[in-house]
């Protein structure tokens, strides 16, 4: 990409940020924004409302090619979109349809699959879940055991998926399955699209340490899946999975979330007094931590934008996404821990009921419960999407040649 093209992408990204700020002030319903900023619990209807609001702006699949309903955003624009929304504390842009399986379908799927699935992803008519991880096959995804056996015009699928986010809401599951045991483990994996209404599917909730139902076990017991729901070529699922995971790990939201919680920490430190008087922000130990977080954030932000420009120039090594994932999630967790410390006694109390009903009296600041909830839930951030240990292995191989 030429220097002028990069400059144009930067200008468009800045224009998009300005549009998002206006959207947050003028279009986003105040109740939805306030609950999201306070990390209160959002349900499926809230997320569908949110996704449809984004689509009314032409943003929900802005990163898709124009041929499939997108705006043809550059990597830099897509990053700026996720980053700016997260900085404003907006709801999560549910990625499973628009960011994960949608690009897999329009890149590798059949024309019939594109016609059938893509419009319903754009309109949020179909809610998707991701069937990757299994017991014993999380970070080592090649060890997956869920099996799909060809039976005429169908596959018979049996196995178990775990940590499946929002499977309780899903209409469809994009799923990695083993269709062969010959050769390398990676060579026998295929990518199937499974209707969650199919007989033989059981969804069992897993309560995470924040006390809520985000993730699930999904059991598949001789589930019949039409062969037409195979994406691409049988046995090529590993390549499609890596394509999808690059999208998952390069999320601009990681940078925006770190910015959002860092700003909240600064405000809380200025508002909260220490025993004996004086604000927390005037304590040398906390000021040192804030300075460290600021420097780490600036380094993360710079690395992320360099990575996006490398993508546009076709010069990415594959390690950039791993670096952003490691540094972003670890910084987020460290800031969240400091937020809990700064809450003092309010960081010990955790009232889950207040996260459902904004009218209940808060314990401490009005968002204290949400701060604790996010701290607890995001202990998993350095595991999901590829653990930090796996990301460091990727960096060691790509950068150091180890």
Describe this structure in words.
The protein has 402 residues and is an alpha+beta fold. It has twelve helices and seven strands. Strands 2-3-7-6 form a four-stranded antiparallel sheet, with no helix packed on it. Strands 1-4-5 form a three-stranded mixed sheet. Helix 5 packs antiparallel against helix 6. The radius of gyration is 22 Å and the shape is globular. The mean pLDDT is 90.
Within the CATH hierarchy, at the fold level, what is the topology of the largest domain? Butyryl-CoA Dehydrogenase, subunit A, domain 3
The helix/strand order is HHHHHHEEEEEEEHHHHHH
| CATH uppermost class of the largest domain | Mainly Alpha
Q: What would you call the shape? A: globular
The number of distinct structural domains comes to: 3
SS content category: alpha+beta
| Shape-level CATH architecture of the largest domain | Up-down Bundle
User: For the record, what is the CATH homologous superfamily label of the largest domain?
Assistant: Butyryl-CoA Dehydrogenase, subunit A, domain 3
Helix share, percent: 40-55%
